[in-house]
User: Fold this.
Amino acid sequence: MKLFNPDNAHWYKRDGEPLHSVLSGRGEPRPTTLRDARKLGLLPSVTNILGVINKPELVEWKMTQAVLAALTLPRLEGEGEDAFARRVVDDAQSRVRTAAEFGSVFHAGAEHVAKTLEVDPAGPYAAWLNLHRDWFQGICVRVLWTERVLVNTELGYAGTADLLMEHRQHGLTLVDYKTQGVKPGNTARAYGSWCQQLAAYRRAIGAPMSCLSVIVNSAEPATPVEHLWSEVELRAGLESFEAALVIWRNEKGYDPRVAPAPGALPVLTAA
Assistant:
C-alpha cells in the first residue's frame, strides 16, 4: 500500500520558460516527469535539487501532522486499516497544503506590494500584507525586479527568485520570502537550505549582492523578520548546493548540463 506520493518537481526550458506541466496524449495536463526532462533537455529547479538533502525539521513537522491526524480523526464504523490510513494521510496532507497555500497567496500579495505598494483590503491575508508593506516601505530604496526565472546552464539548473532590490541598509539585495508558523513566545528560525537556495540563485545571477531571507509568521499577523546571510554562510551554502547537484545527477541518471543535439527534441506542449 503506497500512502505518500512525492511532491511534483518543477522544471524549466533552457531559455528559462517554466514547464512544470505538459499535455498528455489525451490533451490533459499532467506534471512534467524526469522522463520528459531527459527528452526535452529540461533544467531542474533549485528546490528540486535541494530535495536530495535531508531536512530534519521539515520531516519532523510533516510526521507531526500525520500523528495529529491519526489521533484526532474518528474511526468510521467498519473501516479497514488501509482505508483509515489513507484518510489519515489525506488529512495530514491537507494541513501541509494549507501551509503551502498561505505561502503562495502571500508571495503573490508581496509581489503586488513591491510593484504598486497596494494591498487588497478584502484579501484573506490583508493584515499580514499591510504589515509587510510597512516593513517594505521602510527598507526598500528601489525594486529592480520581482519573480524572475534565473538560469545556469553551466551547472544545469534554474529557479524563480522572489525579489531583487536596493535595501536601505544592505545595498543590492536578493530576497527570498519564507513563511513559518511561529508560536507565541517563540522566535523565527532560519534554515541552512534557505541559504543554499539563495546562494544558488546568486550564482545564476553571477554578481555580488547581499542575500536576505524574509520570514513571515503564518500563525498570526506580524512584522516580517529579516535574516541576512553572511558571506561565509553563502560560500558554504553554494558548496552544499553544488554537492547536492552531483548527488542529484547521479541519483536521477540525468545530466542537465548536456543539451540535447539540435533536432533531437520531441514536441511536448506546456499545459
Observations:
- The chain has one domain: 43-252.
- Residues 51 and 239 are 15 Å apart (CA to CA).
- The radius of gyration is 20 Å.
- The first strand starts at residue 11 and ends at 12.
